[in-house]
Design brief:
This protein is α/β, with parallel strands linked by helices. The protein has two domains: 11-245, Queuine tRNA-ribosyltransferase-like (TIM Barrel), CATH 3.20.20.105; 252-345, no CATH class. It contains 15 helices and 13 strands. The chain has helices at 26-32, 41-46, 50-55, 59-62, 75-81, 107-117, 134-154, 172-184, 201-214, 229-237, 247-253, 285-289, 292-301, 304-330, 334-345; strands at 11-16, 37-39, 69-71, 85-87, 92-95, 102-105, 121-123, 161-166, 190-192, 221-223, 242-245, 256-257, 264-265. An eight-stranded parallel beta barrel has the order 1-2-3-7-8-9-10-11, surrounded by four helices. The longest helix is centred in the C-terminal third of the chain and has 27 residues, at 304-330. It is globular, with a radius of gyration of 20 Å. Mean pLDDT is 95; it is low at 347-352.
């Protein structure tokens, strides 16, 4: 339960990086069944500024979304988007990707920004290091642990839940050490960072196995930045509760649609005269109303409606997958559900 409503888990959070889920309105998200969305601290700090968001009543009022919101700490974007950055034990100095201006982000400042934004769940500031460099991961993990304690000390709003983040790269002993330390700070929930950044899929799944055993069972686990359907199922099988990713709307902008048999590229010529919906059996507005032929036409014509309809379908697809997963878990049939679903979708991943 959050101040803005209940979040039933496992749950997928559509990403509204700049206080908007691309191509979709809050009304769409409510009708699709989104229970929680994510917004980005780094981007909103740079534009329009967290002070302005606070002046406008906080994120919920600013973007007209009355459901729960999670904000990340900005750490991943500092390390992935800024061409120039200097990391030290106190924080990070970085150049804005927008205008080249220089900025300083510390654990305390990240918390202050997120308190201004006013999300229901906020994240500790952490460093996301290259996953395969053991020596640097040792240094980075110690820094992330120190920053987590500083974030906890700086956090003052009692209406926000602050989650810690586990790092440690692809190394089991470091991951388990990080889980023990972050758990010792007794956060209300835990993020698993530093995954889905190019490591082999099996490495990610192995890491989730370690985290499932190492983190408290009575608190939510948030697998950050993951949204591939098979990864959601495999993540749930390994104890994960929350997921987020830009994937559904990003794929939509590139003409790719989720179906129960796998992705399809709607720009392909084979769909020119296809009178079927994107995914037969899907109950979303796109699939109940329009044909593949029409959607392909919109995409080739550069019509905005095509991006909207594709985004609507892809977000709906993941939200309904999570609904079906919750039902399967509650009815003690998740193992059979996941095996059947993965075999139909592609069969190259298992949830066991």
């Amino acid at each position: 339960m959050t101040p803005h409503g209940e979040v039933l888990t496992p749950a997928f959070m559509p990403v509204g990086t700049q206080a908007t889920v691309k191509a979709l309105a809050p009304r769409d998200l409510m009708e699709l069944g989104a229970s929680m969305i994510l917004a980005n601290t780094y981007h909103l700090y740079l534009r329009p500024g967290d002070g302005l968001v606070a002046y406008m009543g906080g994120l919920h009022q600013f973007m007209a979304w009355n459901g729960p919101i999670l904000t990340d700490s900005g750490g991943f974007q500092v390390f992935s988007l800024s061409e120039m950055r200097k990391i030290d034990d106190d924080g990070v100095t970085f150049k804005s990707h927008l205008d080249g201006s220089m900025h300083r982000l510390t654990p305390e400042k990240s918390i202050r920004i997120q308190e201004n934004l006013g999300a229901d769940v906020i994240m500790c500031f952490d460093e996301c290091p290259p996953p395969t460099d053991r020596e640097y991961n040792l240094i980075s993990m110690a820094r992330t642990h120190a920053w987590a304690a500083r974030c906890q000390a700086a956090h003052a709003r009692t209406d926000q839940a602050l989650f810690g983040i586990v790092q440690g790269g692809i190394f089991r002993d470091l991951r388990e050490e990080s889980a023990r330390f972050i758990s010792s700070l007794d956060f209300p929930g835990y993020g698993i960072g530093g995954l889905a950044v190019g490591e082999p899929k099996q490495v990610m799944l192995d890491t989730l196995e370690w985290m499932n055993a190492a983190l408290p069972a009575n608190k939510p686990r948030y697998l950050m930045g993951v949204g591939e359907p098979a990864d959601l199922i495999n993540g749930v099988a390994r104890g994960m509760d929350l997921f987020d990713c830009v994937l559904p709307t990003r794929l939509a902008r590139h003409g790719a649609a989720f179906t129960r048999e796998g992705r399809i590229n709607m720009r392909n010529q084979i769909f020119m005269q296809d009178d079927r919906p994107l995914d037969p059996g899907c109950a979303c507005y796109t699939c109940q109303t329009f044909t593949r032929a029409y959607i392909r036409h919109l995409l080739h014509a550069g019509e905005i409606l095509g991006l909207y309809l594709m985004s609507l379908h892809n977000v709906h697809f993941l939200l309904m997958l999570m609904r079906d997963i919750r039902a399967a878990v509650s009815e003690n049939r998740f193992e059979a559900f996941s095996a059947e679903w993965l075999a139909r979708y592609g069969g190259d991943q298992t949830a066991e």
